[in-house]
Design goal:
The structure holds two protein chains of two kinds. Chain A is of the alpha+beta class. Chain A contains five helices and six strands. Chain A has helices at 2-18, 27-40, 45-62, 75-89, 120-130, and strands at residues 20-21, 24-25, 64-70, 94-99, 106-111, 114-119. In chain A, strand 3, helix 4 (75-89) and strand 4 (94-99) form a beta-alpha-beta unit. Chain B has helices spanning 2-14, 147-152, 171-192, 211-223, 241-260, 272-285, 299-307, 335-343, 352-356, 379-385, 388-402, 410-425, 436-447, 459-473, 475-484, 489-505, and strands at residues 20-31, 34-39, 47-50, 56-62, 67-72, 83-90, 92-95, 103-104, 121-124, 162-165, 200-209, 230-236, 264-270, 318-326, 346-350, 369-370. In chain B, the strands form three sheets. An eight-stranded mixed beta sheet of chain B has the order 8-12-11-13-14-10-15-16, sandwiched between helices. The chains are: A alpha+beta, B alpha/beta. The A-B interface holds A 9, 51, 54, 107, 109-110, 112-118, 122-124, 126-127, 130-131 and B 11-12, 15, 17-25, 39-42, 64-65, 85.
């Protein structure tokens, strides 16, 4: 089982490399990879596709800044965040906004595994830890 | 009321309003104190990670798709999907004299109900052991107060001496006796006002023991007045394996503080067999490849990196380690015992047979050794006990040979008689270590044949009587021996006279 998972991971990594063009996931390439997998059905196809999905999801998350906000956020602010993050990570980053009232006020921006906390709830949590 | 609100507002204002960057991940699976985490792409090896609810973990497995963490603290409220953040820090524990007299957990938090610990400094739990150039050779004695050990298997400050034996052979008792003896020496030394006197502070690390045993140990130390010089690090059998795994390293960090600050410390790891078992449990859950007896491949490094931290540093202090290993049916050739034997600078081997025969401490003289040897002994002990190990070995050989027949020459009989008396003389009750000057006096009496006319079975009582005689009536002589640390002609004459006086007043 462990050997099968390792093989699936290796194949998924190869497929992932084929799906990237200029450090960006190519929709056409992903479609091509999926068509190839469907046609040739490698051993443990489910494991391969799950691992491939994970790699693609992680990569896509790195190109997307998910902005959680309490109250309204201006389109200009989102554009500024996108520009700042693109510069910081040296890759084109898009933004998606989602209302999150539990933040009380402010923003929380997530790019991949990195979280930029600038909300009142985050500061209160930090305060609670420091007391 | 408004003052309180003002304080809170000021505190909020103090906090930076800038965005704080955190590297995060999510718990994928969690079991037996080990979590597999998705994300945490920036995490470093051995870095502390923060779990919800205040629990902390250590990143031990950095894999392509996940990070394996051991969790220290309460895991009952953690669940799949919970967010985990990196801290950018290595695990550290409080260190310093504020910990003396306290019982703490593997993270240095007080568990004795005596309130928080006011420690000014913290030390990282994992630290690289001192290098060759920083070290100094071990040549200062660390008295255990146990005659059989101090005279035949001497321990030096900065040494690693293994205490090994089956369960119930008195391993912990030897360690506790040693701690009690340090406290006694500290009290005498500090009261004397000697500027050169260096006290020894003790750290007792209990790994995987029953809480009731730890309570008993604390009570024994308290009763002997040794707790004030001792830190107890407790990772009980009820704690998760991660806490048991980290506890000895936490204790070592606390000991290193004393060493780095020019003081001497003694650390007891009770015991490393259970430590290895806790590490095996963690490793198996982390799916690390297992080897002999299902231990992971780095189980040697687990103990070598811990014990190498014991040292005597040039221009600084020392850290002496007494690791304990429990054997099964006296099998010293098992995996963990052989590992630790090869790491340490000698071992005190305790035998079940000796223990059952009433020879306590049940030290097997033949199998026990101290690789530091007589360089960690004072001259007085060498003068009176230098040949003891040889005499005892000869006695054992002759005793085995004498079983085959009864026709023995006078010389052989005398050697057997003497050997039997030495064995009796080394019997010592638990938690009553003897001061080195008293040991020297008793061994002097032994060497001069004062115990020869006494029936072997009555030697223990005679020795106890003699100890009482010396402590109550010859205090000045004992102080002189302690201060001179060597027997000159004058001292020998005084000792001879004192022994004669004892003999004249003693009736068996």
């Amino acid at each position: 089982m462990a050997a099968a998972a390792k093989q699936a991971q290796q194949l998924a990594r190869q497929l992932f490399k084929l799906s990237v063009v200029d450090n960006v996931i190519s929709t056409d390439r992903v479609a091509g990879v999926l068509a190839y997998v469907e046609k040739h059905a490698p051993a443990n196809a489910v494991l391969v596709l799950k691992a491939y999905h994970r790699l693609i999801a992680v990569e896509l998350a790195k190109s997307e800044a998910r902005v959680e906000h309490a109250g309204t956020v201006a389109p200009a602010a989102l554009a500024a965040i996108a520009a700042a993050m693109s510069k910081k990570y040296s890759r084109p980053i898009t933004t998606t906004a989602r209302a999150h009232p539990a933040l009380l006020a402010g923003l929380r921006v997530r790019v991949g595994d990195d979280v930029y906390e600038s909300s009142v709830s985050g500061q209160l949590a930090a305060l609670a830890l420091s007391v | 009321m408004s003052t309180v609100l003002d304080q809170i507002e000021q505190q909020i204002a103090k906090l930076s309003t800038k965005a704080v960057k955190k590297n995060t991940g999510n718990i994928r699976t969690i079991a037996d104190g080990v979590a597999k985490i998705d994300g945490l792409s920036d995490v470093m090896y051995n870095e502390m990670v923060a779990f919800p609810g205040g629990a902390i973990g250590i990143a031990l497995n950095l894999e392509e798709t996940e990070v394996g963490c051991v969790i220290l603290g309460d895991v009952s409220k953690l669940k799949e999907g919970d967010e985990v953040t990196t801290t950018g820090k290595l695990l550290s524990v409080p260190v310093g004299k504020a910990l003396l007299g306290r019982v703490v957990d593997a993270l240095g938090n007080a568990v004795d109900g005596k309130g928080p610990i006011d420690a000014k400094e913290t030390y990282p739990v994992e630290r690289i052991a001192p290098g060759i150039m920083a070290r100094k050779s071990v040549n200062q004695p660390l008295f255990t107060g146990i005659m059989a050990i101090d005279s035949m298997i001497p321990i030096g400050r900065g040494q690693r001496e293994l205490i090994i034996g089956d369960r119930g052979t008195g391993k912990t008792t030897i360690a506790i006796d040693t701690i009690i003896n340090q406290a006694k020496i500290n009290k005498v030394g500090l009261a004397s006002g000697d500027a050169k006197f260096r006290p020894v502070y003790s750290i007792y690390v209990a790994i995987g023991q029953k809480s009731s045993n730890i309570v008993r140990t604390v009570a024994a130390l308290e009763a002997a007045g040794a707790l004030e010089y001792t830190i107890i690090v407790a990772a009980t059998a009820a704690d998760n394996p991660a806490n048991q795994y980290i506890a000895p390293y936490s204790g070592a960090a606390m000991g290193e503080w004393f060493m780095e600050n020019g003081m001497d410390a003694l650390i007891v790891y009770d015991d490393l067999s259970k430590h290895a078992v806790a590490y095996r449990q963690i490793s198996l859950i982390l799916k690390r490849p297992s080897g002999r007896e299902a231990y992971p491949g780095d189980v040697f490094y687990l103990h070598s990196r811990l014990l190498e931290r014991a040292a005597r540093l040039d221009g600084k202090g020392s850290l002496t380690a007494l690791p304990i290993i429990e054997t099964l049916a006296g099998d010293v050739s098992a995996y963990i015992p052989t590992n630790v034997i090869s790491i340490t600078d000698g071992q005190i081997f305790l035998e079940t047979d000796l223990f059952n025969q009433g020879i306590r401490p049940a030290v097997s003289v033949g199998l026990s050794v101290s690789r530091v040897g007589s360089s960690a002994q004072i001259k007085a002990t060498k003068q009176v006990g230098g040949k003891l190990k040889g005499e005892l070995a000869q006695f054992r050989e002759l005793a085995a040979f004498a079983q085959f027949g009864s026709d023995l020459d006078a010389k052989t009989k005398a050697q057997l008689e003497r050997g039997a008396r030495i064995v009796e003389l080394f019997k010592q009750p638990a938690f009553s270590p003897a001061a080195i000057e008293l040991q020297v006096s008793i061994l002097f009496a032994m060497q001069k044949g004062f115990f020869d006319p006494i029936d072997a079975k009555k030697v223990v009582a005679a020795a106890a009587n003699m100890k009482n005689f010396f402590t109550t009536r010859k205090d000045a002589l004992l102080t002189e021996i302690r201060n001179k640390a060597a027997l000159d002609k004058d001292l020998e004459a005084k000792l001879q006279a004192a022994c004669d006086e004892w003999k004249s007043g003693y009736t068996a």
